[in-house]
Specification:
Blueprint (H helix, E strand, L loop, with lengths): L2 H12 L6 E3 L4 E3 L2 H14 L3 E15 L5 E14 L5 E12 L4 H17 L40 H14 L4 H13 L20 H12 L4
Antiparallel strand pairs: 1-2, 3-4, 4-5
Length: 228
Amino acid sequence: MNIHTAICNIMSEIGAIGKDKTNTQQNFKYRGIDDVMNALQPLFIKHKVYVIPEMLEHAREERQTKTGGNLIYSICKMKYTFTADDGSSISAVVIGEGMDSGDKATNKAMAIAMKYACFQVFCIPTEEMKDPDGESHEVKGNEPPPKQEPKNQEPACNKATKQQCTELYKHATVEKGWLKEDYQKFIDGLYENKKISSKFSKKYGTDEIIWTVDDVNTIRAEIDQLPF
């Protein structure tokens, strides 16, 4: 069996992997590397597929927590080669990022890379993904918007720009692979813990910016400290 047929067979059997792990600090759910391995390993054996990791690039740097502790930040560019029993193979190159106060930053980065390589090669869905056709929205007619009273705004020098907020959203959803729902829960958790000044707003990408520059920096730092 060639690798293309094997991957299609595995995709037909893998099904969805639910977000059963919970980040207790920010109160949102995610899929762990163990969930992926436990689902795929029996199917790899059944269809005679194995994977070889190869580290292409590796970078490390030291960062500090808000309390002054040291963190090791590791970025790995990994190549994973999936091979079938006839010798045919395909490769996937992904980036993994990990942060740890001890010696496990690189291990976390490699685990993240492996997890997302499998997500993308085998198109593994979550149980909570919604079909867009299953939702409908009523749209108002072209009525003039209600007149709003001017709001008390913070000094312009400390208000985040539209570009800063958009780049932060892309950092979480594109570079980290989060769903929008995870990003929203993460932001709301930071607000409830009084780390930022406002909850998640659907208007983050419009001209109405609700976060300060300090909020944006805090959110990015909290995202980068997570091991996934």
